[in-house]
Amino acid sequence: MNWKQLLSAKRWGYEARIPNDQFDARSEFQRDYDRLVFSSPFRRLQNKTQVFPLPGAVFVHNRLTHSLEVASVGRSLGRLFYNLMKQQNPDLDSEYPFLQEVGNIVSAACLSHDLGNPAFGHSGEAAISSFFTEGKGQDYQKEMTEEEWADLTHFEGNANALRILTHPFNGKDGKGFALTYATLASIVKYPCAAIDGHVKGNHHRKKYGFFDSEKEAFEKIVTELGLEKDPTNPRGYLRHPLVYLVEAADDICYNIIDLEDAHHLKILSYEEVEELLLPLCGGGGLRGRLAGLADSGSRVELLRAKAINTLINGCAGVFARNQDKFLAGTFEKPLMDALDSQIVAQMERIEEISVKRIYNAPTVVQIEIAGFKVMNALLEEFIPAYLKADKGHFDKKIVAMIPQQFHTDRTDTYSKIRAVLDYVSGMTDIYAVDLYRKMKGISIPSL
Question: Which of 49-63, 239-253, 347-361 has the lowest mean pLDDT?
Fold first, then answer.
């Protein structure tokens, strides 16, 4: 793989148009970022759970604030990488004109990396999958291919993001978001189909990156950017190198910022957070600054900022030093796992504490259980009603609740289920709970 082809500014749906940034205020990749910011799926992230239940008296991160922070870190990673490469090669811009745009590409990809996540975080993904593996959805297996069934039984937010960005939804622009090919490729963490994913020890196949319905779309991206075949999977591909920066930005943010939220919610004390973050902050001069801050929240913010800075610099350095491996597709682990051994050990400690004290905190577990029940119940109502050829009175009423943009003219079972999942997975936590209550008669809409 090579940067000249990988950093294509060709735009999805407008392949024949020749980009010309000379007289524009924004580059093609900055346009990607702006299109995402102004989009409905991005706005809906405001009411989707990140880890903790959506705010009561204390504000915590949701999917939108998380995505904005990941995009900020991603831009820094891309810019630092470019600066390091520029130091080594002063003629870099003439040889690779778009390499200076890496920060903008990564930032846009980071902004969209969670667009496909359903309500209630990973619990929502599990609810959709279990509907087909354990629930009433099991009956549909005989009506679809093995590849299609693998999509449904392993619902994946990463793959759903690519669908949202490229699928021609009913009544919407047939070109989807019309993002650049480089940005689209940079969000596909696992460039394989569901049937080939979930392979332990294989970084390209840990999960999967596109549904069977988007297979042709992804292959168009592969052809345009020259992504290479995965030697372990004849039907899969190697990652676009910038995926590693997007992945690192996400890893940096959720590992560090979940600690900040836990402190705000009094799950972790200040002393516990300081013990976890201080080793990542570099040097011993920080204690004096911390002592000068009377507010523990401000001290945590300073620790968070310093820790993130350390991780950004470390990851950008690894990425710059190992260019040959990334372009050859032979770098077999996340950037975070390639940092200094002491940093890696400390991040593992943070992950261990997070699993024990944060991700299994009572409020987190409660929202996961509630979300699982809500999502499963909605699927039990919408999928059978939408699939019935001879719809009864209430089936018609239920189908009428699905907005027209999510309907499909295709008649096969997989496409119809996919249409319902487009609707249900796009719901916010609040909307899903409210709709569940109304459909179950728990609350009655006011007249």
Answer: 49-63
Helix 393-400 and helix 362-387: axis angle, to 10°? 120
With beta carbons less than 8 A apart as the criterion, state whether 115 and 107 touch. Answer: no
Q: What pLDDT, in 10s, does the model give residues 10-54? A: 898 887 776 665 556 578 899 999 999 999 999 998 888 766 555
With contact defined as beta carbons under 8 Å apart, do 183 and 108 qualify? Answer: yes
Place of tokens 């990809």: 109
* pLDDT digit string, tens, across residues 333-377: 999 999 999 999 999 999 999 888 888 877 778 878 888 899 999
